[in-house]
Structures are given as C-alpha cells and as structure tokens.
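@channel anyone free to eyeball this complex?
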Amino acid sequence: MRDDYLWDASGEPDPEIQRLENALRSLRHNGPAPEFPVIAADKHQPRQVRWLHGWFARVAVAAACAAVAVIGGFLVLRPKLQVAPSEWTVTNVDGGTRLGSSTISIAGRAKNLGIGQLLETDSRSRASIRAEATGEIQVEPQTRLRVLSSKSGLNRFQLERGAINVRIWAEPGEFVVDTPSAVAVDLGCVYTLQVNDAGDGLLRTSMGWVGFKLGDRESFIPAGAACATRKKTGPGTPYFEDTAQSFRDFLTVLDVQGSNAKEYSAALQAVLEEARPQDALTLWHLLPRVPESDRERVYDRLAQFAPPPAGVTRQGILHLDRQMLDLWWNALDLGDISLWRHWERSWPQNDVQN
Amino acid sequence: MSREPAGYDEGDNARLVEAARQGDRAAFGQLYDDYARMVHGILLARVPLSEVDDLVHDVFLLALRQLHTLRDPTRFGGWLAAITRNRASDFHRRSIDEVELPDSLSAEQVAAGATSGTHSASDDEAIFLLAVVRELPETYREPLLLRLVEGMTGPEIAARTGLTPGSVRVNLHRGMNQLREKLASRPRSSGRSK
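replying in thread with the prediction:
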C-alpha cells in the first residue's frame, strides 16, 4: 500500500512521503507560459527538403560556433566538441557493480571506467555510465561491458552480454558498440541493446536512429523500430515495433538461413501482403537481401507505399545500385544516409568475431 | 495498469503538436502548460536551482524551433525530455569555469548556504531535501523529483516522459528506499524538523 501511494497517490497515504511532498512543494514549477516567438509554418517545401535544408544550415552554424548533431528525429544545439577524450564515470545504482577486480557496493558511489576494464553486473545490480561530452548508459542486471577506446571522435564499447539503455548526445558516428553479432553505430539517439549468451542480440530505438553492421550487411533502425542480430548472419531486417507478431515471425524466416525455398517464398509473400505503408522501412531493407528472382515483388510493393524519387530507376534498384538505394532511403524520411556513408569511411575495421 | 493517466490523451497531444507546427501559439502554450512541470523536474535533477526557470524557457524555445523535426507527434513527451536532458548537459559544459552547486557540495553545505539569505525555514528544508535527492543516482532522482516536487503521479510520469510504467515504478520505489536511508542517517536540526 505504501508503494501505491508513492506510485499514484492512491491507497493509504504514507506519512513520510506526505511530509516530503509538503516540504518540497515550494519548489514546484508554477510560472505561466511565457510569450513565445511566432514560428511560421513552412507549407510549401516538401518535408524531406525542409529537413535537409535545416541540416545543412546547422552544419554551417556548427562550423562557426557550435557542434550540431543531425538525427532522424530531433536536433539539439551543442557547443563545439572538445579535443580531450571522453572520461567515462561508472556509478553504482543498485546492488554491487564489479569493475575490473574491485566492486562498487555503495549506491551512488562513482569511479572512472578505464580502457579495457570490464564492468559487470549480477542479477541484482545495475549501474550507470556517463561521459559529459558523449552520453550516458544505463547498465541492466547480468551485463558484461567494457570500453575498447575512448578518444576524440570515437568511443567504442563492447557488450559481451546483457542489456544497456543508451542515450547519446555526441556527434553521429562517435559512439559505437560491438556485440558478438554486429556493430551498433549511434547516429544521434536513444536506444536499448541486448545480447544473450549465444551472442544474438536485439536493438530497439526510442529516438533518432542507429546503424547496425556486420561486414557488408547493414541495417538502419529509426525511432520506434527494432532489429534482431544473430551470430551467423549479422543484423536482421528492421521492423517497426507496432507490427503484428505474424509479420515479425515471417521476417525471422527470411532472416534466418536454413528454411527451404517453399517456406521462404511463403514467408516473403506473407510479409509483402501484411506490410503497411510505414513498413517501407522493412521492405527497403529486404531489397538487397532477397534472391534476385524475388526482388521485383519487393520493389513493386515498396513503390506502392513510397514511389521512387527522381534519379531512381526500376532497373537500377533491381541491380542494387547503391546510389539509387540511398536516394530511395532518404526519400523515406527516416534519416539522412549520407551521415552513415560519411562516418562509415572513417571507422576502424570491424573485427567483430563471427 | 493503463499507460495513460486520467486527463492525458495521446491523440489530443498529437493534435496540439500538429497545430503548433502550423504556427498556432495557443496550441504551443497548451503544450507548455502540459509539459512544463516535467521539464522543470528534469532540470531540478541536474542543474543549480537558480538556473532552472531560465532553462525551462530555453528548452521550450528550442522545442518550438525544432518542432518540425519531430517525426511522430505522439512521442512529443519523450522528445522534449531528451531535449531537456541535453540542455542540462549543455549548461554544465558551458559552466566549467563557474561555481557549480550542489552536486559538489554535501546537502548540509547547500542548506547552510541557503540560510544566509532571505530564505525561510521551510525554504531551507526544501533546499536541503532537494540536495539529498540530488545525491541519489540520476536514474532515481528524476522520477522522485517529478513525483515529490512537481506532484506528478507515476502513470503521468510514464506517459509524459515516454518511459514504461514498469520502469518508472521500479525507479520510484528504489529511489524512495535510498532516500529514506539517506534521510535516516542525517541529523535533523530544529529548523528542519516538522
């Protein structure tokens, strides 16, 4: 009952909580809404062009006085990034957090996280990791995580198993997490990443978008979407989390090698039939993954939902022309793929174990 | 348990966001009324008390300017919460050379500083308690301040911030346990006891 009162003020009041409420009430926000400037609605430019204009404008601002991160969901002004590497601080939240050979057992106690040092939580412990210039990570129970590098422009972690909730405010491409089956590259966002003991994982994005990569296989996961990853095959096909379970089950058949041709064809047909307009995300990712003989079906269905923009031809897509695929991705308005291509060229070689 | 608390309608929220995007200042004003406590509470967990009100205004200005980039209007709350946290981090990066309160001071030191001005005993108590909450891990500070200071219920915190009710409930419960322990270990002055 005490928990009920704390939760929603129902049930028997907790005297201590009531005392705290009374004592702290004077700090409550009570100001009226200020006068905000008029921001004219832009009704004439197509949404994608408006977003790209905003992005280029902000890059110019960044060169002058502030760093700006471009993400699929929102833009936040930041000061210019410092040259000094990020200093990651671990705070024990619950239970005891193991850091290298020592244990932080007091809640709220913090320590620096060194390069290569293993952070481990048990079934009852949780921790929080933070670097002011980069972001913060909530570490869930039963997790093993370490920093591989922390230098100007790149923070690389390794998630061996467990789950982390990530919130990054650094520049896109500056925060990377290796898992046994794929590399997750932040493009300015909030997401959760889980890895099980078999090395398979699941990434769910709450805000912005994330790139997921193993070799040539890449998946882009925008806000509201998720993507599984498997040790043998790498990133799966992303899907929005409000899709039906049957849709996801059929996607799993397409992603996991081993199904026979008949099962595969039936699963693909089901995905195409059940797809909604917003599942253009999934269909775009299927284009390079399905056999050539099936590609036309995927193209036609995707084109129904999101007509190919100028510069994209049917033949080009069927032949997996990279530029045309990228143009079509940008037309889906899920994130500017030039960010990914730019940062992809500057990453160290991926040495994720298979 | 329903994710949406009484009085919160995701559809109305999305309509307000769309209207605000079209330049409807009254709609944005309504969003301010609906979310100002959330923003204020998040900032209370992170920046000096004296800076909070100005930063609330900053956050909403930023949000107004970037509203066209919000892809899903139903996620306005979570988007705004992220802007708020980022603005708080931004504040700290820009204030490196300035004196920071109260993270680097103990709760007692903050309270002692607060009594030197024109604060009443009840103000002192509030500032002292705020400082104690701010000693807690960040995961717990924020929901506790939204609940105890801003008067938001757990379901409302979940609905507005975009977090799951389960997460909020666990963090409230654990945070409150840690807060009780800290307060139990603190001596009470006659000025602070009730």
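from a first look: Chain A has three domains: 47-79, 88-236, 243-345.
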